[in-house]
From TrEMBL:
Signal peptide: none annotated. This is Polysaccharide pyruvyl transferase family protein. It comes from Gryllotalpicola daejeonensis. The keyword Iron does not apply. InterPro entries: Polysacch_pyruvyl_Trfase (IPR007345). The keyword Transferase applies. Keywords: Transferase. The lineage of its organism: Bacteria, Bacillati, Actinomycetota, Actinomycetes, Micrococcales. Residues 16-315 form the Polysaccharide pyruvyl transferase domain.
Length: 390
């Protein structure tokens, strides 16, 4: 029998390093003698170039320049109907579909006709065509729009296997009415199965700071974005005053522009930008540091894979939930409310405890990887559950 064709959907090929890390981890687990991956995303050429697997276009974004509310609504509906029709075409060519994390059911940028609709289209096509659909190790937040919550419930109905990266996500799934969520599996984030860097001698004076091109929650919030940039600039000044050398990293291509703006404003050779775009590159930079400040969720994961104590200034409770799930100190503060002086003190404290905390982090990451290993038998079985395959 030929290898099963497995579609992997997510926000891939758009320059988000964390999303690409998630896909990389998933592809690494697929036995290529049993499964042939097909990436499903908006930018298939970029995804294929990065991961070396064939990719299919699900649909283009529902943006429109039509004037008038009715004309705009009609344009969006036509766009989404075309995507739904293409979802049936794509799913019909596959043996299974995996919805691989990447924030599709999270609050940040959660327009109902964006990723929630994409996921609903694939899950609906899978249910009707008899293809197994897996919701794998996803993060979930309570979506603010009623229509988005409707699509989330449809995703749950269409999925034959569902797992979450933390209890927080499963509780949010239940709160949105995703049927039988309490029976679903809680595992961890797929990225914890990525290879870990070799130990190196750490630089006690080095702090890695993950920055973000932050635009506020729910795709608005200019004042919040300006406050974040100003607070990070102040924090970098405090770290320099304490004799620290700072390396800035991003979690997305757009973040590197923000990092460049910060270094230009500070004009200090003790604050530089690392051109790190892959999980291995990010982990290698962080492995040398005494402590990391993370903003994006997967920057936090890369820091923990590197065994480096980390403070999170995240934009959602998923950061705190992940630290709690791993049994690590909940060193998390909100991105729109953090005090630069307080964060500088936290970084100094964690750097002083680096050997002790690294041992705890290494143990927690090993346990997370073991949970992913145990889950994979069930995942492989679910992928092969297409009933009409001969």
């Amino acid at each position: 029998m030929s290898a099963l064709r497995v579609g992997a959907w997510g926000v891939f090929g758009r320059g988000n390093f964390g999303n690409e890390a998630t896909l990389e981890a998933f592809l690494a687990r697929l036995d290529r003698e049993r499964f042939t991956p097909v990436i499903i995303c908006e930018r298939p050429d970029a995804a294929t170039e990065r991961h070396g697997a064939p990719a299919r276009l699900l649909g283009t974004p529902a943006a429109t320049v039509a004037r008038g509310r009715l004309a705009r609504a009609a344009a969006v509906l036509a766009n989404r109907f075309a995507l739904l029709r293409n979802a049936f075409r794509v799913v019909g060519e596959l043996d299974a579909v995996v919805l691989v994390g990447t924030g599709g059911l999270e609050r940040y940028g959660s327009g109902a006709f964006g990723t929630p609709f994409d996921m609903w289209s694939l899950a609906t096509a899978g249910r009707i065509l008899g293809r197994p659909v897996l919701l794998l190790d996803v993060g979930v937040e309570v979506l603010p729009r009623r229509l988005a919550r409707f699509f989330a419930r449809g995703v749950a109905r269409g999925a034959s296997y569902r797992s979450y990266r933390d209890d927080y996500s499963r509780a949010n799934a239940a709160a949105m009415g995703m049927r039988n969520a309490s029976r679903d599996h809680v595992v961890t984030d797929l990225a914890f199965s990525l290879p870990r860097p070799e130990p190196v001698k750490r630089d006690e004076s080095l702090v890695v700071v993950g920055v973000m091109d932050y635009g506020g929650r729910d795709d608005h919030g200019g004042a919040a974005a300006a406050r974040y940039f100003s607070a990070v600039e102040e924090l970098l000044g405090l770290l320099r005053a304490r004799g620290k050398r700072v390396v800035l990293v991003g979690g997305d291509e757009v973040d590197l522009h923000t990092a460049a703006q910060l270094t230009e404003r500070l004009s200090d050779d003790r604050v530089t930008v690392a051109d790190a775009r892959t999980p291995g590159d990010l982990e290698a930079v962080m492995r040398e540091a005494s402590v990391v400040l993370a903003t994006r969720y997967h920057t936090l994961i890369m820091a923990l894979l590197a065994g480096t104590p980390t403070v999170s200034i995240g934009y959602g409770e998923k950061h705190r939930a992940m630290l709690r799930e791993l049994g690590l100190p909940e060193t998390h503060v909100d991105i729109e409310a953090f005090d630069p002086a307080q964060v500088a003190d936290q970084l100094t404290e964690l750097a002083d405890r680096q050997p002790e905390l690294t041992a705890r982090i290494d143990s927690a990451v090993a346990a997370a990887t073991a949970r992913l290993d145990r889950q994979w038998h069930d995942v492989a079985s679910a992928l092969a559950a297409r009933k009409d395959r001969r």
